[in-house]
Design goal:
The chain has 16 helices and no strands. With 321 residues, the protein is mainly α. It has two domains: 19-173, UbiA prenyltransferase (Tetracycline Repressor, domain 2), CATH 1.10.357.140; 176-308, Four Helix Bundle (Hemerythrin (Met), subunit A) (Up-down Bundle), CATH 1.20.120. Helix 3 runs parallel beside helix 9, helix 3 runs parallel beside helix 15 (276-301) and helix 10 runs antiparallel to helix 13. The longest helix is centred in the last third of the chain and has 26 residues, at 276-301. The chain is globular, with a radius of gyration of 21 Å. The relative contact order is 0.11.
């Protein structure tokens, strides 16, 4: 397969900018952006709305480097099936624009840079958490689960849930119950998100032999599982308000509104599991949901928000309260 890729689809770079672009694409930047948003949310919650700008920059940079390393190795490992699947054939490795050995060196360099940066400017726990994310994503998900287990996304979702732990540890140097709840929220969000995508491109996964739930169990079972995870996810987001008291009223309102829409879309999919557009709608919204939920955490944690809520509560009649 690799000989076919290299001889028939090989392309050459015309300038340095194209080389940089190819290596940039290996890191899957769109995925990194979402991971960094969850990292930032963890930092703001841990710092109670007052994050040190330098620490924020260092942590997000280190997290981006770690995620880029993991994604590059994922591209390296999956280059055979990426060549077969229409939506991934353009990627740098299956297209022949980057050699496998160069991609491996690039991934190792990113991992070393991430670990060094986070150890020096944050703390060792933060660096180890970022490194564990790389190891889990590469060895547990990509190597072991993705091609061999229908639970690949469920268990593998732990890798994507590590970034908020990285953010929290960077600020506090430890991990509290609130940090682990952030981990749980991302962990529960992952199956509905990826299974909705898998329902959209089920035939492609089937062609390359990846045992995604829609391929093995069908759309109806997948929609049922998405509904179950959604029912657990939405109430879980409110645990930050009570009993943990990490977030307040503003976040609670945002989480309820966003969660209500999430449940509505999951219910629509449950009613029409064969509708690709319904699955696409849930998939796209799941991304927006996580971004806005994290934004809600950040806004709620800001001192100005806390002061406004306190001022409003004090101005209300006691009878109303």
């Amino acid at each position: 397969m690799q000989e076919v890729i290299q001889t028939n689809v090989s392309r050459h770079h015309d300038n340095v900018l194209q080389v940089v672009q190819s290596y940039y694409q290996l890191t899957k930047p769109r995925i990194i952006l979402l991971l960094l948003i969850t990292t930032a949310a963890g930092m703001w919650l841990a710092a109670k709305g007052e994050v040190d700008p330098l620490l924020l920059l260092v942590t997000l940079t280190g997290g981006a480097l770690a995620s880029g390393s993991a994604n590059t190795i994922n591209c390296l490992y999956d280059r055979d099936i990426d060549y077969i699947m229409e939506r991934t054939r353009w990627r740098p490795l299956p297209s022949g624009r980057v050699k496998p050995v160069d991609a491996l060196i690039f991934a190792i360099a990113l991992a070393i840079a991430s670990f060094t940066l986070l150890t020096v400017f944050a703390n060792l726990l933060t660096a180890l958490l970022a490194l564990s994310g790389i190891v889990f994503y590469v060895l547990i998900y990509t190597h072991w689960l993705k091609r061999h287990s229908v639970q690949n996304i469920v268990i593998g979702g732990a890798a994507g849930a590590i970034p908020p732990l990285v953010g929290w540890a960077a600020v506090t140097g430890d991990l509290s119950w609130s940090a682990w709840l952030l981990f749980a929220i991302i962990f529960l969000w992952t199956p509905p998100h990826f299974w909705a995508l898998a329902m959209m491109i089920r035939d492609e996964y089937k062609e390359v032999g990846v045992p995604m739930l829609p391929v093995i169990e069908g759309d109806e079972i997948t929609a049922q599982q998405i509904w179950i995870y959604s029912l657990i996810l939405v109430p879980s987001t409110l645990l930050l308000v009570y009993p943990l008291h990490t977030s307040g009223f503003v976040y609670a309102a945002i989480a309820l509104i966003l969660g209500g829409i999430f449940l509505q879309k999951a219910w629509q999919l449950l009613q029409s599991p064969s509708e690709r557009n319904t699955a696409r709608s849930l998939f796209k919204y799941s991304i927006l949901y996580l971004m806005l939920l994290c934004a809600g955490m950040v806004v709620d944690s800001l001192p100005v928000t806390q002061n406004m809520v306190m001022a409003v509560s004090e101005s209300l009649p006691l009878g109303f309260l």
